[in-house]
Amino acid sequence: MIGKVDKNVVKNLVKSKAIEKGNNWFFVDYANDEVRVGELFDTLLEGRQKTLIPGETKIKLKKVYDQLGHYLDYVPEGFQTICKFDFDNKLPAPINKLPTFETWDYNPNSISIANHQLIQLSEPDFIYKKMNALFIVAMRKHIHSQKSTITTQELRDFFKKKYLMQDPKEILSLLNMWKIMGLVKEKKNQELELVAEENDTP
């Protein structure tokens, strides 16, 4: 999702009064895969880094129009579209904060939506996951052997001190990958639960 669609743009494109209800219309950038109307999503990723946005949500694709105003029953791969989505409750805060555009514009903070099951299917292979689990177990032992949680700051300090990793974006990208793998869970107060255990490693 690049941004919300200006109401007048949708009105001219779709030629329907129904679009005046709600603000659930969005400019959607090039799709990586074909997506059918009715498909469900439950995961939000922000920006080019695809940073995982914590929280639970349910999103359903309701309507799709191409750039010429033709109604489609799916989002074609490689196409930009205008889409209407239904949300289980209210718009998630990151989506609600998206700017309103009159066309497909550039937004570095665009939101990608996905199904967590498909993300899991496309995650790194078994051996790669085991290697990451081994690293997390070793990291926990290095920081403090008794606790199963660390703070985000402790994680940053660990990478800076032991691996001279200074770029916070690189650390965040690695952390998001671990979350998708299920090796780390985000808790309150900037704490991270290290899920990987000894029996998760080779």
Q: Can you tell me about this structure?
A:
The protein has helices spanning 7-14, 93-96, 116-121, 126-143, 152-163, 168-181; strands at 3-5, 25-28, 35-36, 40-41, 43-46, 51-53, 59-65, 71-72, 74-75, 81-87, 100-101, 111-114, 149-151, 184-186, 191-194. It is α+β, with helices and mostly antiparallel strands and 202 residues long. Residues 198-202 have low confidence and may be disordered. The chain folds into 2 domains: 3-120, Elongation Factor Tu (Ef-tu), domain 3 (Beta Barrel); 126-200, Arc Repressor Mutant, subunit A, CATH 1.10.10.
pLDDT averaged over residues: 78
Terminal CA distance reads 40 Å
Number of H/I helices: 6
Kindly report the CATH topology of the largest domain.
Elongation Factor Tu (Ef-tu), domain 3
Q: What structural class do helix, strand and pairing data support?
A: alpha+beta
Instruction: Please report the total strand number as a whole number.
Output: 15
What is the beta-strand fraction?
25-35%
Q: List low-confidence stretches.
A: 198-202
- Rg from alpha-carbon coordinates: 20 Å
Provide the helix percentage.
25-40%
H and E string: EHEEEEEEEEEHEEHHEHHEE
Please outline the major beta sheet: 7 strands, mixed
Report the CATH architecture of the largest domain.
Beta Barrel
Shape: elongated
- The domain tally reads 2
Classified by CATH, the class of the largest domain is Mainly Beta
Which oligomeric state applies? single chain
